[in-house]
């Protein structure tokens, strides 16, 4: 009898998020939304839509699933002199989307829970890529570029829109906005993503950042919050030697 084929290298275990109240959430994919707050779009030199009718389509990019960091120590990455923080609401999907384009009205049923995270960005590399019309991958998808907090079930968070998203660095408030200011809300983003990808349980969606992005340095301590519901504490450690 022929023996079953064996892996020729060790299989990599998925990153797993802690879930408040018990359990773990294995991460499948990480999708990110760019320019989803008007004030940040203007901050980055882009034109913000004047109305919902003028929104066009969202800007999407991705990070590797193993870029997710669940501890409180995040190493300053190599190849950059300008690491920026972008605090974001992170949405976790607990069910697969049906085949085809997901209706906005059905999208919320896919959501398992929420947390907060940082979309860390090598801004100098992003600026070069933008100037040359190149992809942003090396600016966004590097190791440890997606620290996230504890996952809280959607029912325990409740209505999102009035809640405030914020980031403090070394005790100084740098970013703050209510989720009313999202250009595309969670169901709308899931609808748009479903036109491009098959959404599955285990997917995370970083929903975009408000204005106030700025540089981080080794030794900085950050606290990301969604009101008093979720907190993420982390420190930026020196680059690996």
Walk me through what this model shows:
The chain is of the alpha+beta class. It has a single domain (16-237), classed as Fumarylacetoacetase-like, C-terminal domain (Fumarylacetoacetate hydrolase, domain 2). It has helices spanning 38-43, 104-107, 123-132, 137-140, 154-157, 186-194; strands spanning 16-18, 24-26, 30-34, 59-63, 68-69, 73-75, 83-84, 87-93, 111-118, 121-122, 146-147, 152-153, 164-169, 172-178, 204-206, 221-226, 230-237. A six-stranded mixed sheet has the order 4-3-15-8-9-12. It has a five-stranded mixed sheet with strand order 6-17-16-13-14, with no helix packed on it. Strand 1 and strand 2 form a beta hairpin.
Q: Give helix and strand order, one letter per element, not per position.
A: EEEHEEEEEHEEHHEEHEEHEEE
- Total helical segments: 6
Shape: globular
The number of distinct structural domains comes to 1
**Beta strands, count:** 17
Kindly state the percentage of residues in helix: 10-25%
Look up the CATH topology: Fumarylacetoacetate hydrolase, domain 2
Please give the radius of gyration in angstroms.
18 Å
Question: How much of the polypeptide forms β-strand, as a percent range?
Answer: 25-35%
Q: In terms of structural class, how would the helical and strand content be classed?
A: alpha+beta
Strand order of the largest sheet: 4-3-15-8-9-12
Largest sheet geometry: 6 strands, mixed
Overall mean pLDDT: 95
CATH hierarchy: architecture: Alpha-Beta Complex
CATH class: Alpha Beta
Distance between the termini: 49 Å
User: What's the CATH H-level homologous superfamily?
Assistant: Fumarylacetoacetase-like, C-terminal domain
């Amino acid at each position: 009898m022929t023996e079953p084929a064996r892996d020729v290298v060790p299989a990599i275990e998925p990153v797993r998020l802690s879930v408040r109240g018990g359990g773990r959430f294995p991460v499948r994919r990480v999708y990110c939304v760019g320019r989803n707050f008007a004030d940040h779009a203007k901050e980055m030199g882009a034109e913000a839509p004047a109305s919902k009718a003028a929104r066009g389509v969202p800007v999407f990019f991705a990070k590797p699933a193993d870029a997710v960091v669940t501890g409180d120590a995040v190493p300053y990455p190599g190849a950059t002199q300008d690491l920026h923080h972008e605090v974001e609401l992170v949405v976790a999907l607990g069910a697969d989307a049906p085949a085809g384009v997901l209706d906005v009205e059905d999208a919320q049923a896919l959501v398992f829970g929420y947390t907060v995270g940082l979309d860390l960005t090598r801004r100098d590399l992003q600026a070069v890529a933008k100037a040359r019309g190149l992809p942003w991958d090396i600016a966004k998808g590097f190791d440890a570029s997606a620290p996230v907090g504890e996952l809280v079930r959607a029912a325990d968070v409740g209505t999102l829109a009035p809640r405030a998203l914020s980031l403090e660095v070394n005790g100084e408030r740098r970013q703050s906005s209510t989720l009313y200011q999202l250009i595309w809300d969670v169901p709308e983003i899931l609808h748009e993503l479903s036109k491009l990808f098959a959404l599955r349980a285990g997917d995370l969606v970083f929903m975009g950042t408000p204005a106030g992005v700025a540089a981080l340095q080794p030794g900085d301590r950050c606290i990301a919050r969604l009101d008093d519901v979720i907190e993420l504490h982390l420190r930026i450690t020196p680059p690996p030697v």
